[in-house]
Design a protein that fits this description.
686 residues; alpha/beta; Substrate Binding Domain Of Dnak, Chain:A, Domain 2; Rossmann fold; 4 domains; six-stranded parallel β-sheet; 49% helix; globular; binds FE(4)-NI(1)-S(5) cluster
Length: 686
């Protein structure tokens, strides 16, 4: 009877006329600090097309999931253990059906995020290693080994000899193809070797390696550490948050010092090591009278070929034959960063601008591979003439208007030409009025371990001597790595830019990757001229002297491995302690959203870096576990997590940490002296 009543109620409720509610839409100015983005959000709203910004208004996040305390690892749940106000009053008695505590649930969820992130970066690395193997075996003719020096530099890390001794004692160079083949095999084995540990771990400063060894977190092989996370977090396995995060650390290290580092290195070998170059950034790089091809995703394997195809005379002539003036390439997300770093192809925007590039009405093709790709691109593309092309075997979309051209390294150029031709032939099909925002900025990108050595190295002394010397004398207060995504739950680019500006204002040099790099480029922070406007006097002086921007763009998110190695070089150059955790340095992801960011954060923390995240933190419902991440991990690895959504406070937490490290090194006095020098100088000029 009770059932019947309930049913009747539902039926009645269904028949009642619903009040028409206007769909919630975003306030363009509240959604982004960037004018081009604001214009395009408004444009989309005029056209009746929803974007991520509107959807973030219409749907709020789950209040339990956001705390990290919802367990759906078995079908007795989901068990929800939100932290309520009264929970802190007495003993924490929250538990799931099986008895799992909030700490266990949050730790399991946290390390599953690490598994997702490490898998994404590392599978990307594996894809590159497979192409490298095909090249080494002579099976792929469209790619070549572009940077032999880089190959020779990394070979010893895999235990591969670069010279050979003849019987009469002569030392001869080994054949490059032979070296490549051996490196390719050893690199591919890193994903599944049965014994030992990852080769690149020994590239870390010795004391750090010893810490990992003592803590028992040296990753054995990449796949194993990720699989083990899935096993341990299965119902009824690992139920100790400390032991769970230990496995999370292993997998994260397998990402940063494994999959990501291998990806970066082999990409450099195949496509060239980046060196500083000039480009532009933001939606304003698109051109109404050109064929616009936007490349979005993460692997540079396909995009390298598309760049080559689009720059060929044959394709440029073809574009002209359909009435276009040429072909304009643009990037979104990290594939954008890859082709920016090596070819100067300008990024059209960050992660949150992907839909907006299509809404310009001038995007003739958007080519996507893997990661950070919105499924809603297909719905947006449907409203325009844009061809949305998926290219990766593991990343397809269900919508019918999406074209799938599976990319294969064995006929790479052929595939790339097919895609470029498709875009050219689509130029004449533009139907909507084109509206490209004018906004764009100039940038200098393409930094890396090698180019920092060139710009900030010493002539006679250690490699990073000039950088270290300026840190010791206090002109540069410290180093910050500011990286990561955008998140539609916070104003687009606001935290990125506020934090970076606050850091450079306080003489902290910034190394950037990922969408933070693109955000900084869009705001014009990646030019040497920026230094005089935004930097403190010490950093401004250094930038002016050596001609670099105060924010150095180091590439995509897998290129965070470049930051690890740059930090290692700083340690090696001397005078700033023996380990990464001794350096006056800090890390930040102001607007993170991806599981990859959590993996990156964990490997930075485990490498000794104080790492602050903005927006939200996925363990807030489990204070004991969170305290372990925020305070206890430092005792093991020298680095720790922190969370601060307010951008100014966020920057000052990093600066306070940098100052603490300066004091521990005994170089805080030198900094005071420099400040006095500046004051004196100002008095003189007054
Ligand atoms: Ni990184 Fe690159 Fe951007 Fe975040 Fe996505 S593009 S790999 S995950 S959103 S920085």
């Amino acid at each position: 009877m009770a059932e019947e009543t309930k049913l009747k109620k539902v039926v009645v409720a269904d028949k009642e006329p619903k009040a028409e509610k206007a769909a919630k839409v975003a306030d363009p100015v509240g959604a982004s600090i960037d004018i081009a983005t604001q214009q395009m959000i408004k444009r989309a709203q005029e056209l009746g097309i929803d974007t991520v910004f509107d959807r973030a208004e219409a749907m709020k996040p789950c209040n339990i999931g956001i705390q990290g305390t919802c367990c759906k690892n078995c079908a007795m749940g989901p068990c929800r253990l939100p932290l309520t106000k009264s929970a802190g009053d007495g003993p924490d008695e929250r538990k799931g059906l099986c008895g799992a505590t909030a700490n266990t649930i949050a730790a399991r969820n946290f390390i599953r995020m690490i598994a997702g992130g490490a898998a994404a970066h590392s599978d990307h690395g594996r894809g590159v290693a497979e192409v490298f193997m095909a090249v080494a075996q002579g099976e792929s003719h469209d790619y070549k080994i572009k940077d032999v020096n880089k190959l020779l530099a990394i070979a010893p890390h895999y235990g591969v000899e670069t010279t050979v001794k003849t019987e009469d004692g002569q030392v001869l160079d080994r054949d490059v193809n032979e070296i490549a083949l051996e490196v390719a095999q050893k690199a591919l084995d890193e994903w599944g070797k049965a014994e030992g540990e990852l080769f690149y771990l020994k590239r870390a400063p010795q004391p750090l390696y010893e810490k990992w060894k003592k803590a028992g977190v040296l990753p054995r092989n990449i796949d194993r550490e990720i699989v083990e996370i899935m096993h341990r977090t299965h119902m009824g396995v690992d139920q100790d948050y400390k032991n769970l995060i230990k496995q999370g650390t292993r997998a994260a290290l397998a990402d940063g010092w494994g999959g990501s580092m291998i990806a970066t290195d082999l990409q450099d070998v195949l496509f060239g090591t980046p060196y500083p170059l000039q480009s532009e950034a933001n939606l304003g790089i698109m051109k109404e009278d050109h064929v616009n091809i936007i490349i979005h995703g993460h692997e540079p394997i396909l995009s390298e070929m598309i760049v080559a195809a689009a720059q060929s005379q044959e394709m440029i002539d073809y574009a002209k034959s359909v009435g276009a003036k040429g072909i304009q390439l643009g990037g979104i997300c990290c594939t954008g960063n890859e082709i920016l770093q090596r070819h100067g192809v300008p990024p059209a925007g960050t992660y949150l601008q992907q839909e907006l590039a299509i809404i310009t009405g001038a995007c003739d093709a958007m080519v996507v591979d893997i990661q950070c790709v919105f499924q809603n691109l297909a719905n947006v593309a449907k409203c325009f003439h844009t061809k949305l092309i998926t290219t990766h075997r593991i990343a397809r979309m269900e919508q019918e208007n999406v074209i799938h051209i599976e990319f294969d390294e064995h006929h790479a150029m052929e595939d790339a030409q097919r895609i470029v031709k498709m875009a050219i032939e689509n130029f004449k099909n533009r139907k909507a009025e084109v509206m490209i925002p004018r906004t764009k900025a100039t940038q200098i990108a393409g930094f890396g371990v090698e180019s920092i050595r060139y710009h900030l190295g010493g002539t006679f002394r250690g490699d990073y001597y000039t950088l270290n010397d300026n840190i010791i004398n206090g002109r540069i207060r410290g180093i910050a790595g500011v990286v990561g995504c955008n998140n539609a739950r916070t104003r687009h680019n606001e935290a990125h830019i506020t934090i970076v500006k606050e850091l450079i204002k306080n003489d902290v040099i910034v190394l950037t990757t990922g969408c933070n790099g693109i955000a900084c480029a869009m705001e014009g922070l990646l030019t040497p001229e920026t230094a005089a406007v935004f930097c403190g006097p010490g950093l401004a002086e250094v930038c002016e002297t050596v001609g670099i921007p105060p924010v150095l763009h180091m590439g995509s998110c897998v290129d965070n491995s470049r930051i690890l190695l740059a930090a290692t070089e700083v340690v090696k150059a001397g005078g700033l302690g023996n380990d990464i955790c001794d350096l006056p340095a800090a890390g930040s992801a102001p607007e993170w959203m991806s599981e990859k960011a959590i993996s990156i954060g964990q490997y930075f923390v485990a490498s000794g870096v104080y790492t602050v995240f903005g927006v939200t933190f996925p363990t807030s419902g489990a204070p004991v576990f969170q305290n372990y991440l925020f305070n206890e991990l430092e005792k093991i690895y020298g680095g720790k997590w922190d969370f601060e959504p307010d951008p100014i406070k966020h920057a000052h937490k990093m600066i306070a940490h940098i100052d603490k490290k300066r004091k521990a090194l005994g170089i805080d006095k030198a900094r005071e002296r420099v400040l006095m020098d500046m004051a004196d100088r100002m008095k003189l000029s007054a």
